[in-house]
Design brief:
two-stranded antiparallel sheet; 7 helices; globular
């Protein structure tokens, strides 16, 4: 099994702290320095798709610099992917959370926020396309991608959450610490035009 981990970062201290905890081989990492020229999350993740195709990898893992791995250094997440080759989306959760629950419940408060450590099977992008860069630099892209995945797979088994030795630090550190700003209004209007509904509906 082959995989690529894409990590875009805008706040160097968080990146360095995250790097100190992972044990992924260098050749499996695509590190995108957005500290000076911020490409945005969507374009950075799309670069991960390109690298995945170039490597002929099976999985694309998106990683936030807010993540801190335990002793296994994230290799326990790789084992989850190896054990579930037929899945299409796999989220990591902290060890106190039972599998299948990304939100609170199922055993405790999940210490991994949102999609801070999520793997996508290569077939996802063949079936639904890439991240929509109209949401650059961030915001509502996860909802958009989630809707496209749900429309294609129609609730079929294969989108799940598995606990590993990991925890998160903060949500929105790029905004609060990296000082990345964006105007939400045009993206909200774009979302409404695209989907015929508000992003929170």
């Amino acid at each position: 099994m082959k995989y690529i981990v894409v990590l875009p970062y805008v706040y160097l201290p968080y990146f360095e702290a995250c790097k100190a905890t992972w044990k992924f081989p260098d050749e499996n990492m695509l590190l995108i320095d957005n500290t000076v020229n911020n490409l945005g999350i969507m374009k950075s993740h799309n670069m991960g798709i390109d690298k995945m195709k170039e490597m002929e990898a099976d999985w694309l893992i998106i990683l936030s610099a807010a993540i801190r791995f335990g002793e296994a250094g994230g290799l326990d997440f790789i084992k989850v992917l190896e054990d579930h080759p037929d899945y299409y989306v796999i989220h990591a959760a902290s060890e106190n959370v039972k599998g299948g629950k990304q939100q609170d419940g199922g055993g405790g408060h999940n210490e991994v926020f949102g999609w801070h450590l999520t793997a996508f099977n290569k077939d996802v992008f063949k079936n639904i396309g890439r991240w929509d860069e109209n949401f650059t630099p961030y915001g509502y892209d996860d909802i958009d991608l989630s809707l496209r995945i749900q429309k294609h797979y129609k609730g079929a088994p294969g989108w799940d959450t598995f606990p590993i030795d990991v925890h998160d630090t903060t949500m929105g550190h790029s905004i609060n610490l990296g000082k990345i700003q964006t105007d939400d209004a045009p993206k909200i209007e774009y979302f409404k035009r695209k989907w015929g509904r508000a992003h929170g509906d």
